[in-house]
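Throughout this chapter, every protein is written as a compact record of paired, labelled lines. The reader may check this reading against the record printed directly beneath this paragraph:
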Amino acid sequence: MAFVTEIETQELIASLQKRDEAAFSLLYDAYSSVLFGVAFRIVDNKSIAEELFQDVFVKIWRHIDSYDARKGTLFTWMFNITRNTCKDYLRSKQYRYQKMMAQEGLDYISSKYMPQTASNEGENFDLQLLVLDLEPKYKEIIDLVYIFGYSQEQVSQKLNLPLGTVKTRSRIALKRLRDIYML
């Protein structure tokens, strides 16, 4: 890292807080490789790490005024932004959906949406059967929310149902699945 002394770091921070683009370029040159490495190690996917890495530097630029030297070094602050951005991604529905699709293929998607992919294999086959036994109005909501990753608001719009109905059906479906599965 190019900035090793306390004085250089303080000058860099002051310049960044003044929105000096040259200082941002120096910051990027000094820390980009190590922060990208952190992102890559967390998500274990180069293209996703690159996207998240860009988000990290945008966050650093936008929130440099919130940096407080009393709470830690500049690098620690940036490291935490990187780590938290990556962990937020890993917790997201988008990530879980992509991971499920990569690991299990299309086994989880119901025959209503993709009948040619219906399968009776996989470790969650018993759960898939339980979902198939739900009334169609509940099954459709479970598929859209938990398989396709739609929010309840998006399901409401897609199915042209009131949001309250979507939430109620989702809650009822989950309760029925839990009751049946726990038998």
About this structure: The CA atoms of residues 71 and 77 lie 8 Å apart. Confidence is low (pLDDT under 50) at residues 104-125.
